């Protein structure tokens, strides 16, 4: 049975969304095409009608994951628009976010995997990271009236590192310690 163009486009979006979440949970090599397509409710044969390769899907899913992360930052700031930087920090460096494997930060979930992928996957991450830096820089500039490129880089690196470290330990107190220490350091750096 032939699928309409609109249905094919919808299926493609579904696969990208599912892959975005499953890659964050299991890594790029932690799930095969058969299981990815099954997760999207489609057959493996449909994959090659939509994507050139698994790397093509990985690049698009990475872009989608980074977009999703940016939307989550926007939602956090909308809830606390008087202190957007504080809102992003509170959301990002939380135990709740630490526990979100499928919907959490793609940089933390896939960063080391992405470093071993091709140029297209890296480009998706780079674009998302640049957008994160721009947002953080804007928050710092609005709050403190200064050029904030270096601070934005330090803050993002601290946030990503702290969340990653909190995820690799079993001890919840140690995990919370990493998140709290990073929050303290970022607040000091942003206010300095």
- The number of helices is 10
What is the distance, rounded to the nearest whole angstrom, between the alpha carbons of the first and last residues?
A: 63 Å
For CATH, the homologous superfamily is named as Tetracycline Repressor, domain 2
- Determine the structural class based on helices, strands and strand pairing: mainly alpha
* Number of domain units: 1
- Low-confidence runs (pLDDT<50, min 5 residues)? none
* CATH architecture level-2 label: Orthogonal Bundle
Helical fraction equals over 70%
Overall average residue pLDDT:
92
Describe the structure.
The radius of gyration is 18 Å and the shape is elongated. 34% of the residues are buried. It has a single domain (52-191), classed as Tetracycline Repressor, domain 2. The mean pLDDT is 92. It is an all-alpha fold. The protein has ten helices and no strands. InterPro entries: Homeodomain-like_sf (IPR009057), HTH_TetR (IPR001647), Tet_transcr_reg_TetR-rel_C_sf (IPR036271). Keywords: DNA-binding, Transcription, Transcription regulation. It comes from Rhizobium gallicum bv. gallicum R602sp. This is TetR family transcription regulator protein. One of its GO terms (molecular function) is DNA binding.
